[in-house]
Amino acid sequence: MRIGVLYLVSGPSGSGKSTLCRRLAAEGEAEFSVSCTTRQPRQGESHGREYHFLDRETFSRRIEAGEYLEHAEVHGNHYGTLKSEVIGRLKSGVDVVMDIDVQGAAQVRASEDPLIRRALVDLFVMPPDEEELAARLKGRATDSEEVIALRLRNAIEEMAHWQEYQYRLVSATHEEDYTRFKALLLGERLRVTRTLVP
Length: 198
Prior knowledge:
By secondary structure, the chain is an alpha/beta fold. It is 39% helix and 20% strand. α6 runs antiparallel to α7. It catalyses: GMP + ATP = GDP + ADP. It is found in: Cytoplasm.
């Protein structure tokens, strides 16, 4: 028996990381860790599927109770991953994919939990250049010009952190990205350190 892989994935808005994570989960290769957020749902999003949508008071209460593996403020909203979304699955040998920002990733890397440290594999997904990133953000048609400008500024800052990760994926086509993304997980499953010692 093995412990699950904690596949931590970061990258700027528009990099394609969320699409990769969702597809991996949809194909049954890993279970998606649904984060909590205080931001409002976008059209088509529902509570418990894309995010657990919480008010600020509830989010803060859960911080005080020590329920988060990581949490951070991004784009003026709070985001966090509940320990309950991750720990039990890893112990059962289930791979968990997390789609989180660089602040949250740093907190997970700093975790002193031996299971987290042993299970963790982190990947940074980035677009080939800033022009492509800007085009992707505008192409969503879900945000105002002000929000797009903020996301672009934040994305450029986030991309400076790629060297903190074990792996980096420079985005090409959707299919090329997914093939490489899935291959990394499959390779990590073969590590001897994933085996549980009786």
